[in-house]
């Protein structure tokens, strides 16, 4: 059973060590749908709405960046009906966020091989990132067609393309070639819902010193109490970075 440690009013939040970057694995949409007697597509829709509220809640508490593992490179193996719906939901989400950018003032990034998404999605991703690049209230990093091993492969390919010799390939240099490496720091904490306790290829390189938190609830049931729990649990931990 998860015990929650709720944050006090934000006027007292300086007593907490607020993470700069929270990375979330949004797991359990289909199981939530099954338990609630609705279609898996309804579960994904509910999960999309939960993601919007979660990002806003983290920003309200001082977190600078939130990464959302929205669609992995392995999710293409799901049934065509489900994948088609997810692509439609993604397109609708991007269009809706485009209309709200000036109001919410979030910066939007997309990480992964998003250029390989179907139809006009790559153009819409590019447009969303361009339109939001000046906003500073918080950064939402959508991980789309994302795989942690692919990210490392793409980083090495980028280095080779730029003429690096094997002697020049270092951890520091490789880190700079990861997706959006100059825009967001490594995640301070990675949280996963649904009770599963694995990364599933998420943030493999960047997670070397991340704190892990696993929640025993499905993603559509994630709420502000979970945001507070993640921040308070992170604040209680001692990060020594090998020292």
Model description:
With about 240 residues, this protein is α/β, with parallel strands linked by helices. It is about 40% helix and about 15% strand. It is built from seven helices and six strands; from the N terminus they run βααβαβαβααββα. It has a six-stranded parallel sheet, with helices on both faces. Helix 4 (about 120-130) links the parallel strand 3 and strand 4. Helix 1 (about 30-35) crosses helix 2 and helix 2 packs parallel to helix 3. The longest helix is centred in the middle third of the chain and has 25 residues, at about 80-105. The radius of gyration is 18 Å and the shape is globular.
Strand order of the largest sheet: 3-4-2-1-5-6
Q: Gyration radius, to the nearest Å? A: 18 Å
Approximate strand percentage = 5-15%
Major sheet description? 6 strands, parallel
Mean pLDDT: 92
Q: Which geometry do the CA atoms define?
A: globular
Structural class: alpha/beta
- Which bin fits the share of residues in helices? 40-55%
**Uncertain stretches:** 1-5, 7-14
Tally of alpha and pi helices: 7
Q: What order do the SSEs take from the amino end to the carboxyl end, as H and E? A: EHHEHEHEHHEEH
Distance between the termini: 32 Å
How many β-strand runs?
Answer: 6
